[in-house]
Amino acid sequence: MTREAAAEIFERIALLMELKGENPFKIRAYKTGAEIVESHPGDIMQLAAENRLGGIKGLGEALQEKLHEMAATGRLDFYERLKAEFPEKLFELFGISGLGPKKIAALHRELGVGSLEDLRRMCENGQAAKLSGFGAKTVEKLLESISFHEQHASEFRVDQVYALARTLVEELRALPEVSRAEVCGSFRRGKETVHDLDFLAASKKPEEVIAAFVNLPQVAKVIAQGGTKASIHTEEGVQCDLRVVSGAEYPFALVYFTGSKEHNVVLRQRALDRGWSLNEYAFSLAEGKAGAPLPEEIHDEADIHRALGMDFIEPELRENSGEFEAAEKGRLPELVKLENLRGVFHNHTTASDGKATLREMAEAARELGLQYLGIADHSKSSFQANGLDERRLRAQMRDIRELNEEFEGGFRIFTGTEVDILKDGSLDFSDEVLAELDYCVASVHNVFNLPEAEMTKRIIRAIKNPHVTMLGHLTGRLLLQRPSYAVNVAAVIEAAAETGTIIELNASPWRLDMDWRWWRLAKEKGVKCSINPDAHSTRGLQDVIFGIRAARKGWLTRGDIINCLPLAEVEKALRRKTEGEAED
Ligand code: DGT
Ligand code: CA
Ligand code: CA
Ligand code: ZN
User: Fold this and answer.
1) Could you give the C-alpha distances from 129 to 2, 106, 118, 142, 150, in angstroms and in order?
2) Spatial contact of 173 and 181, defined as CB atoms under 8 Å apart
3) Within the chain, which residue ranges are assigned CATH 3.30.460.10?
4) Fold designation for 3-151
5) Which of 9, 166, 271, 359 is deepest in the core (most CB within 10 A)?
6) Residue bearing the CA closest to ligand 1, atom 30
């Protein structure tokens, strides 16, 4: 069992116990347990398997035993029994924003609501509005939330399938009959959410590969099985398709199954223009067309692109949005890579709502090979996240200064804040306080329901402040859970360009905000990007990998990204805005 699955089970236990109205301390213990399992820096499942969880702070004996059982058996009897007391589809309700355990408990108890469908019915027939704590407005919001949810019902965030995709492809590659294998589809194209995972393998013995695939431990259910293809579902309900082809067909199949469909249509047309037809297996002479002789020696995708008169097009760019023209003219960007990152801004510590201390965060960043770490804990208006007031912020600045002296120039922590953008666009700290920091991220964390013009004005007012170095999670969306608030993104980009404000690419897989679709415009206007993990634990720092995927999908190069700059240069880039202002 993965740590994510184990943490999820602890979280679900906490939710079910809350529904049963159990002791809040016990509930708290499971919530904390879930956080510990998720953020523990070592291989906690390995420790659990070996029954060596003793030293981990905050993990009591009861939870240690449960974790041991999950690691050893892949299930938890206590959870199975608890779950059996409730309707199977009850968990659908927990994904609805605006619906906490208390409301779910009331709906379940009073109206027998046990699924999303039940909830919709009770909202529509007026029953839900009669419950205490529910009004017409709550119900209206719930209905909006339900329909958003239903629109995205069959999608997964990339972090939900990331480990699975990696593991399955490694397992395929490890089969002796398989020469090459890859994850294709939207996952390979770096999409922020996917419907399913598409695997491709090259082999001379497809039946054996298929047989091995459907017997992998992750397979919960076989949906379809044939001589060269199979579809399975995992325990979490992720569909995985596998196609097996010959080595000669592999490059063609890789192009085809990577997609996108829109990209493939144009690619096939380009082949037709040369008198060739292109499918998932080969080039062949198009019927009734006198064309050039068929290209030979196709060993990889780049050979196919070259045969069609283009440079190699990276998978992330295959959306039919200008990649063909650029590839033809040799003008494709050299996309940023994980190794290009030199540091990370926008990270939280235990001072606000993070799980790791300042020192632990710094050490983890150094371990990752980074040269600098930007701290940006919440500001005082974010009281639910234990935001810092001026006094605590200044104390943190002193702590950072002391730590930096220990590092003796080899590594640096930048002082910062994630300052709340208040309803009118003013900031939660005075200019005087902000001026003492190395940098400042400004974000919207409340009052999401403003009309578009007002929200846009609010954000633009904030970024006009010379002390705001960067704008945090521009649209506030939570993928598959909460849509963006109403905001004119193009106008914000324009204002960021005018004021020299950096825009964050929040790398949390829940956010990936600003969305990849906007980065080409931003780049064109000269706006710089910062790939910010928004880490709330040491493990959270590794979310940069999701930010890199999104940045690549947005055509960004290392030159567009401020935290690809080495330590010696990044400081100047952070000061650009205030110093530019002073010169004027
Ligand atoms: P999704 O919805 O997240 O699974 O997105 P994809 O792109 O992974 O879509 P999927 O799984 O339906 O198909 C994988 C790839 O296979 C797709 O990107 C392109 C290729 N493909 C599938 N069906 C067709 C088709 O009808 N026409 C073309 N040209 N390509 C297809
Ligand atoms: Ca797919
Ligand atoms: Ca598929
Ligand atoms: Zn934030």
Assistant:
1) 40, 12, 14, 11, 21
2) yes
3) 156-247
4) DNA polymerase; domain 1 (1.10.150)
5) 9
6) 261
Torsion of CA 323, 324, 328, 334, to 10 degrees: 20
CATH code for 156-247? 3.30.460.10
Least-confidence region, from 15-19, 250-254, 491-495 = 15-19
- Tell how strand 529-532 and strand 502-506 pair up: parallel
Tokens of residue 571, six digits: 């400081």
pLDDT of 288 reads: 79
Question: H/E element holding 123?
Answer: helix 116-124
Q: Which of 152, 158, 186, 200 to probe ligand 1 with, by most ligand atoms within 8 A of CB?
A: 186
pLDDT tens-digit readout, 467-492: 999 999 999 999 999 999 999 999 99
Rounded to whole angstroms, the Cα distance separating 324 from 312 reads: 10
Q: Rounded to whole angstroms, how far apart are CA atoms 75 and 69?
A: 7
Residues 30/63, Cβ–Cβ less than 8 Å: yes
- Find the 473 Cα to ligand 4 centroid distance in Å: 7
Nearest Cα to 341, choosing from 541, 158, 535?
541
Question: Is the pLDDT assigned to residue 342 strictly greater than 50?
Answer: yes
Q: What distance in Å separates the CA atoms of residue 468 and residue 417, rounded to the nearest whole number?
A: 10
| Ligand 1: residue whose CA is nearest its atom 25 | 261
Domain 252-328, CATH 3.40.50.800 — does that match?
no
Give the class (CATH, top level) of 338-583.
Answer: alpha beta
Q: Where in the chain is the domain with CATH 3.20.20.140?
A: 338-583
What is the reported pLDDT for 100? 83
Question: According to CATH, where is 1.10.150.110 located in the chain?
Answer: 3-151
